[in-house]
Amino acid sequence: MIGLDISLTEGLAAVGVLVLVGVAMQGLWNARKASPRQADHAASGRVEPSLAAGGAATNAAQAGLREAGAVGGDGTDPAHPGALPADVRAAAARRAARLDPLIDAIASLRLDVPVTGELALLHLPPSRRAGTKAFLIEGLNAHSGDWELPAAGQHYGEFQAGVQMANRSGAINEIEYSEFVQKLQGFADGVGAMAELPDMLD
Predict the structure, then answer these.
(1) pTM (whole model) above 0.70
(2) d(C-alpha 132, C-alpha 177), whole Å
(3) Which residues contact 151 (CB under 8 A, 6 or more apart)?
(4) Pick the residue with more confidence: 122 or 50?
(5) Which helix (H) or strand (E) is 114 found in, with range?
(6) Which of 19, 75, 98, 198 is most buried as measured by Cβ atoms within 10 A of its Cβ?
(7) Cα–Cα distance for residue pair 88/3, rounded to 1 Å
(8) CA distance 97 to 134
């Protein structure tokens, strides 16, 4: 009986050791299976699409700002060489939208004295559409001489507003033009400007 007990105990111990070895091998196998993917990814030097797109966007923004003379050799933050300073980013955002006389009906708004960007922002129409047509107001920056979207901390000596003459919905109609005029007049009254509107037929 004693001999039988010893052999049974040894057998159970051997089975326990085999189970532990199996669990350990399974863990190593899973770790090894996951690890080569990361190594291959790092070795390939591939860049995630989102990072590539972000880098392209940053390069495009910097190139555009260089053309505008806004970024020089000392214009970046020394702590983050790839980053654009906040004032440069704000200037780029203000210059992003542009009225085009080829596709927009443009009205001029004359001022007797320059007004602040804060006043302009306060009276901008809540919607950038007149009917189905895009509607935009730009200000002539009294400091830089550039046409840009109104921004706080700036002064503007003149404004211009434009509405798309046509889009996928068709040409601008009388109702849309009337809405454009109404929004424009409200803005002009708010900033103390005299609006010179283009004739709709023209």
Answers:
(1) no
(2) 11
(3) 90, 94, 117, 121
(4) 122
(5) strand 104-116
(6) 198
(7) 88
(8) 11
